[in-house]
Amino acid sequence: MPMDGSEHSCPAPRAPYPGRMPAEHDDDEEIRRRFEQILAGMSTDETRAAIGALLASGPDPFRAPARPDLRRPQLSAPVVLTVRVDLRHAAPPIWRRLELRSDLSLATIHQVLQAAFSWWDYHLYRFALGGDPFDRSSQLFLCPFDVEEGEDEGLPLGEVRLDEVLQEVGDRLEYVYDYGDSWHLKLKVENVRPANEETPRAVATGGRRAAPPEDCGGLTEAEDLADVLEDPAAFDLEDLNEALADVSAAPQDLGLHPALVTLMEAARRTPADGDVAVRAAALLAPPEPLDAVEREAALRPVLWFVDRAGNGGIPLTSAGYMKPADTEAASLVLPEMASWIGKNNRESLAFPLLTFRESLQTLKLLRKYKGKLLLTRAAAAAGTEPDALWSLLASTLIPSADGFERTGAVALLLHIATTPEGQDEPYDAVAGLLTQLGWREGEGPVSRYAIRDLSVASLLRSLAPRKVSRHRDVVSAPARALAAAALAGAGEVTDE
């Protein structure tokens, strides 16, 4: 009987095949004849089932093998990697010798290589470890377009550091730029030495010959390059280092949250590109942090729930709402409830409070268990210590799962962190950005209410010392500070 308790009849066992089974020395024709005789005694359904079982028992001949994961753990301390970079098939050789910090992302290394070979960065590109950039046996690190297309299995190169792919003398990495002309570079580590805080991101120490120009048809030999270059033998180390000094660090290397980097890359294809880039740059000079007293005051609503849930839990009604006494007590500490109409003793009617309480569950501070609200392990570890609780919130404001909630949270955090205190909450601007990114609410654009209803929005509103009015939300200093802290972090709490 199946494990689900349902009853299904099974076919009676078939009588053994009466003839002699094939011996090892039987020829192929005899084996085929006997196989056909066996099939002749089976129904159509039994034949299909047998063939399906045979196919399922072996490897799928049409499925490509999974690519290997060849990355290594990041180094405990950054080093300087001396790397020789050669253009494949160049005659005479065209190469550059670079000193690179190992803690750079591959997104920045891409920019360095573009500068080193005087290219303009308007074609597709990728890195490969363990083989050619188009071999099935290599691990790929893909540019944003290739990631979005999803045709090749690989990691976004912005999520990978150089020291995950190159660490020791002799290590190799492949890079290809412009899949048409196919400029294929081979990177090989020649030396490793310690780095310090003053070590620049990238410095050139040598090289030979001018690189082929963009869109010249893949020319790599000097005789051909003489037709498109004034002097194929030209190489100026000083000019190269000036170009490398102008290379901007990729967002990944500026300490920004990976989700913000993803938003910036998506916005590059929309009219919002400039605004998003300017706001992200503003995060390099974040808002003034709050002191301990200010943090405790801002976290008052959160602290009430953490303290109450940590002392035996908050009991819920059979309908799943907090009971009247707790509803009234929580309403007194939540700024949004100060102007709410009613007695505030029924959570089902105290909508701002219900939204805030549910946001604490979404943000992994509270959990339901046997008719009570209890603390998650992460919240219990932080307890009522304001600094620990602040850090926990900063790590949970951005949902871990891709989707509207994550994109909306990042966009809202970015706008709040860069909007002056006292101005209206930027719900309309965020809704417009998400609409430009392709999100829709039904068949229309994203509305401000879809943004206001996000869990992160409710949490940030709770940090305000007071609510200006029931019909107006404004940005508070604590909300700006916490939003900036969330976008500067890389960790995501997964504990339930």
TrEMBL record:
Transmembrane segments: none annotated. Residues 81-244 form the Plasmid pRiA4b Orf3-like domain. Residues 1-27 are annotated as: Disordered. PANTHER family: LEXA REPRESSOR-RELATED, TNPR PROTEIN. This is Plasmid pRiA4b Orf3-like domain-containing protein. It comes from Brachybacterium vulturis.
